[in-house]
Recover the amino acids of this structure.
DNA sequence: CTGAAAGCGCTTACAG
DNA sequence: CTGAAAGCGCTTACAG
């Protein structure tokens, strides 16, 4: 498995390694005879030469590697955005190296450390709770970094942010206007600001509406989403209360909740109305067409890679934040 | 963003870089005074030293990077296996670099080239149609390589293979024993051997059974899975033929087909029976509990990484193939 | 038009 | 117990 090197080409061609390097990199500065060029390209071809990017990286301090840390790559939302990131990155010549944090600060730190050792040119991360300090340190060292999906309080890190609060307000207003007697917000028991924005958007909109609507919260941990949601929905929907709407604030929550509904033969929107976050394949298998909040995944990926690339190439050194807008796709899952 | 190097530590500590290197790598061969050791560790800590793996890689020709090429990382099946691969790889100190081929040979080749330049220690690939030659070449160069999900004919490449034929036979027999009047196999119009194994397993089992059962095939391309399946299911199920079973040979096909059923109010298993491939979240949102073929994802990932690691460390140089067994999980989607 | 040489940040036999 | 030096595969200013 000994790979051909520039040295081998030089030896066979009877020229110096410098010359080979110039030819292979198509540098225009130094003009090299067409004969030599042709010979070098031919030899490279026949001995199957593949440049060693590691050596180049050591030289110019660029690996063309981008680190991506998400909570879990097997989560639909993250694998979808990873796919878009992959495409956008590739266009700029980067490849993606991935890691899943499982919302665990230690794992998150380990991945940062690992990627840092691998000399990635920059990182795109969905930061976990408590990662303020470690990320702040990176930013202070001018390490190219962009957050996605989430953001952190008290630190200034470049990132792509969804208008969580606004879209939740819009969605809540949409529900309020339908005069439900009861609206139930299904969320996480969490400290992550972007999720609290969703929750606050819901609460403040209800409060400000002045409408007489009863609200409840179902907040679950990460351990046993399906189990918790099912038992809590059972409590809440047990007496088949008329005119209730459920607001699922993430796709995972929606899958757990909708699964409960369908398996217990609770009809949407006849028995209960539903809105959910994110666009996932699974919704297609549900009897009703779910009204959902659509995040602009492709745009998020595009902006994230651009923002990172700008930092890497120092077009900009600002800790810029870009806010993108989600869209409420109205279908037939509410009365 | 200038990172601290071993040289900086050496300068501050007043020792040579060699000494620093020995200490940081905890080499036992050369005994170094506890004082020096302590000093070096302290300095490394305070100046926030992170070893440059690139430099190390150039030296020992190992990057601890593994390339993963799948058809599409946003596909549930691949993102799930990617997650398991990530975990298994991490345990052996590897990180994963990912790419999606979109079943496109040119993209596949480009990814192989890219990963090769990045000097990955090995690759785990779901090979696309027509990639025999390029993979064979890699194997001949003793490039550590493992195929997953699929395999190729006429070449000898180490890989993890599912017992596609056998599990399809079992599943078909399960359906045959239920005395359906009609069984419809929903598959791809493809040349990929593992998918043809599924199809052949279905056909030969029907033929050998001697039962009077009418069979049909719905074979779709990759362009417009949902559209094709829906229009073909409409043809086939239009007259509400009694006693029909559908066999979806992949999760994507199942999602498209089940979506059609649920949206058109065709009841499972009352109106039509269903079995499907793979275990995905989406099935939870379908009114019936789908009977499905469960692939041993974790085991597949485990074996793939092990097999690759063995090649990388030359414990073995054989083009080994490992066949794993899927399991038919019987639920209530068939009569 | 082409080559000798230094250097990127490490490791490691060898010498002392 | 510690250091000088060569080398991994490239790039690039400099010299000729």
């Amino acid at each position: 498995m000994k790979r051909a090197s520039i040295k081998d080409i030089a030896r066979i061609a009877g020229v110096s390694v410098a010359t080979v390097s110039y030819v292979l990199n198509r540098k225009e500065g130094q003009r090299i005879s067409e004969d030599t060029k042709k010979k070098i390209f031919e030899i490279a071809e026949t001995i199957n030469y593949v440049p060693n990017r590691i050596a180049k990286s050591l030289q110019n301090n660029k690996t063309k590697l981008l680190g991506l840390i998400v909570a879990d790559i097997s989560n639909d939302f993250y694998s979808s955005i990873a796919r878009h990131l992959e495409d956008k990155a590739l266009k700029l010549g980067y490849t993606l190296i991935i890691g899943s944090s499982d919302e665990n600060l230690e794992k998150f730190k380990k991945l940062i450390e690992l990627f840092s050792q691998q000399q990635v040119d920059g990182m795109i991360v969905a930061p976990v709770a408590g990662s303020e300090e470690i990320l702040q340190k990176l930013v202070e060292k001018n390490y190219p970094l962009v957050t996605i999906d989430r953001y952190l309080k008290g630190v200034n890190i470049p990132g792509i942010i969804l208008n969580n609060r606004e879209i939740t307000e819009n969605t809540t207003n949409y529900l309020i206007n339908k005069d439900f007697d009861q609206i139930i917000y299904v969320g996480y028991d969490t400290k992550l600001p972007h999720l609290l924005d969703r929750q606050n958007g819901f609460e403040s909109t209800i409060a400000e509406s002045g409408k007489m609507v009863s609200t409840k919260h179902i907040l679950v941990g990460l351990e046993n989403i399906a189990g918790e949601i099912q038992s809590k929905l059972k409590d809440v929907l047990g007496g088949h209360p008329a005119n209730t709407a459920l607001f699922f604030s993430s796709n995972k929550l929606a899958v757990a909740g909708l699964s409960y509904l369908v398996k217990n033969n609770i009809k949407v929107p006849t028995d209960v109305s539903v809105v959910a976050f994110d666009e996932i394949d699974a919704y297609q298998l549900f009897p009703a067409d779910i009204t959902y909040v659509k995040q602009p995944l492709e745009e998020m990926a595009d902006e994230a890679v651009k923002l990172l690339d700008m930092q890497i190439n120092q077009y900009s050194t600002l800790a810029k934040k870009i806010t993108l807008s989600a869209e409420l796709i109205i279908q037939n899952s509410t009365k």
